Every structure is written in C-alpha cells, then in structure tokens.
Predict the 3D structure of the following.
Amino acid sequence: MKTVLKLFFISLGLIIYISCAKDDAVKNDPATEQAILAKYLDLPANPFNYTSPDLPAFYNDQFIKIQDNTPAGNPVTNWGATLGRVLFYDKRLSKNNTISCSSCHAQETGFTDPKQFSDGFNGGLSKRHSMSLINARYYVNGRFFWDERAATLEDQVLMPIQDQVEMGMRLDTLVKRLKGTEFYPILFKYAFGNETINEQNISRALAQFVRSMVSYSSRYDEGRAVVNNRVTDFPNFTAEENQGKNIFMTNARVNCSGCHTTDAFIMDNPRNNGLDASNPDSGIFVHSKDANDIGKFKVPSLRNVAQRERFMHDGSIQGLQAVIEHYNSFIQMSPTLDPHLINSTTQGPERMNLSQAEKDALIAFLKTLTDEKITSDKKFSSPFR
Ligand code: HEC
Ligand code: HEC
C-alpha cells in the first residue's frame, strides 16, 4: 500500500512539474515576451544604450571619476534604465492614474515644468518649482531636492509617488498594480533577473533612468572638448558667447562660476543667492534645523537652462533676462547671504552694474549649454503606445 501511495505522489509531482515547466517555457519564450511588450510599449528589441553613452574625454576625467553619485549597488544597465523609463512615463504611479513623473518633468523643457508650480494628481499644486533632472548624476554629495532632504536618488524617486499632493500613492498598492499588468513582470525580469516586483527595484530602476539623463552634446561641450579648459575662448563660439563665458568664469564681482562650478555647473554646498530676505521657505533649515542654513538651497545645474521658463525653488523668476537682473540689481541682504554676493567694500549685497551688452553676452553664453539631443532623443521619451 505504502509503495502504491509513494508511486502515486511521485507521478503526481512529475505531472505537476512537467506542466509547470511547459507553462514557464511558453511564458519565457522571448518571442512571446516581445509580443506582450509590443502590445503596450514601443521598445526596441535590443534596449537603447544607457550604460555607456559616447561621453567626451573631459567628462571621463572630471565627472566619471570624481563627481558621479552612482552607488556600487545600482549601476545603470540598459534594461534597468528601460524599466525606469516605462515607470517614469506611467500614470499608474499616481493614485488616480492621472499623473506620471513626466507630467512635471517634461523632456522638451529639459525635464522640468514650465509652470511655476506643478499640478498634482488631485488638483493641488506642488509646494516648490519642479527641478530639471539633467545631470542629476553629477551632484557629488548625491543629495536631492531644492533643500537636499533626500539623502540619495534611490530615496528621492519614491518620495513624489507617496507625496500627498503630487501622486498620492501607497507603495504597496503600486506594487500590486504593477503585478496586475501583463508587461511589468517581464520588464522586471529583464532588469533584475527575476519577476519580483518590489519597492526597492522600482526605486532602483527609476534612479537608473534619471542617472542616464546626461547632457554632453551642447555647443559648450564641442568647444570644451577642443580647448581643454573652461577659461580660454572656444573656437566654435561667437565673440559675444565668448564674452559671456569670460564674465561667467572670471569676473570676480559676478562670480557665477564660484557657485555653478565644474562643467556640470553644479555645486555640492547649498547656498543663499539673495532671493528674498524674508524668505517664507527656509530651505535646508527645514531638515537640518541649523539656523545657518535658513534660505540656503541646492545650487542647480545650468545645463539646458535656456529651455526653462521659470527659475529658482519658488519659480518666482521668469525668463533668463530676469535671472541676470536678479544677480545684477536685486540681491537681498540676509544673515546667510553667500559671501560671494556681498560687496567687500560696502559689506552690502553686491551690485554688479553690468552693461546691457554684458547681460546679453551672459545670456548668449547660457544658451550654449543647451543639448538639443537629450530633449529630443527617443530613449528619453514616452515608450507608451
Ligand atoms: C506633481 C509634480 C511632480 C511629479 C509628479 C514628480 N515630480 Fe519630481 N519634482 C517636483 C518638484 C516640485 C520638485 C522639487 C521639490 C522640492 O525640492 O521640494 C521635484 C524634484 C525632483 C528631483 C530632484 C532633482 C534634484 O536635482 O535635486 C528628482 C530627481 C525628481 N523630482 C524626480 C522625479 C521622479 C522620478 C518622479 C516620478 C516618480 C517625479 N519626480 C515626479 C515635481 C514633481
Ligand atoms: C552664491 C552662489 C551663487 C552665485 C555666485 C550664482 N548663483 Fe546662480 N544659483 C545659486 C543658487 C543657490 C540657486 C538656487 C536658488 C534657489 O532656488 O533658491 C541658483 C540658481 C540659478 C539659476 C536658476 C536655475 C533653475 O533651474 O532654476 C540660474 C539660471 C542661475 N543661478 C544663474 C547664475 C548666473 C548667471 C550667475 C552669475 C551672474 C549665478 N547664477 C551666480 C547660487 C549662485
């Protein structure tokens, strides 16, 4: 009797095993998977190259070795960033399926929002102005948001999803929602080796996609590649653009490059650039609780800055002309105003007294930082059909 039972269970097990294996074989068949993906998404069969973009040599020395905030545990892979791209454009990430990351970070405007404040999923407005995501990879300290409250990009990307104004979503609900689709299990398997969908892998994929948004084909890059330093005139620039670059880089009174440093035009130390003496937004202080941080904000990258409509954490400045006017004439004194912007003789806020030609030259220079490729490249656009 015992042997009969044993035999029965062994054959039952075998039958189950064979039928499961057959099922898996169909599910794991690449052609079937491609057909499922193709129903919903316009993705190339071989993923786009996110891992090794064709960076100029000066990028390698400066950024890759010194400034890159990619953690060892989450390098950018082609399928990881592809999954991140799908998530970035997916309205399923918001509670009522109305908002995706791209709603507030639109590719054509350099991954920011032309509006002063962004519309959330439920009709509310974001508290601050949306930020450009280009070159997020090269903030060495790896902290994110205007007030740098997110310690890593992996932490940051999950915050808008759960924000009560922005996307209003619970992560466990999101995981269930993605599991319920036909295509996400396949994409998670391609990206991370198995179909497990969890918060950690959502975060890793989104961070990979954001880190892949590297700008390196602006006219500035072309000039920089042949001159090999930032100060010498670039041969591909007009006289006006070179004049603007010179003011930006070397004029001690203006000192733009004192804060917007390196070829990414970024700084790792939050600063107060004199926007408002009675600032209702206390910046870094919000989380550091250090009075020296009141009114200090992240120094954002100026890459693709000319594609932005609104500027600063509160989006209060409209147009580049007004940005220059702010630095030229309207810097406000406050206890935390950056020493770069205090006049050493008067001890008051710096008044730059730029001529109209100098202001125009600065703007002409800022426009050379626009990389048209990144804002039109298909690999950063919506993959949804
Ligand atoms: C409703 C609009 C909105 C949505 C949706 C949104 N963001 Fe943002 N994003 C913002 C705003 C506003 C800020 C600045 C907030 C702050 O500093 O307090 C920001 C900041 C960021 C930053 C910080 C950049 C830096 O240099 O510090 C990153 C990265 C980012 N968002 C990525 C994403 C991702 C990924 C998604 C989707 C999961 C997303 N955002 C969804 C509005 C939005
Ligand atoms: C003391 C450091 C400092 C100096 C000097 C400085 N900046 Fe800034 N810049 C900042 C900070 C900090 C911000 C963000 C401030 C905020 O949002 O509250 C900023 C923001 C900007 C922005 C807006 C970017 C965006 O995405 O909203 C532009 C454009 C800009 N600066 C250009 C310049 C130019 C041009 C100069 C020289 C005339 C200059 N900056 C000098 C620190 C500085």
Notes: The radius of gyration is 25 Å. Residues 18-23 have pLDDT under 50 and may be disordered.
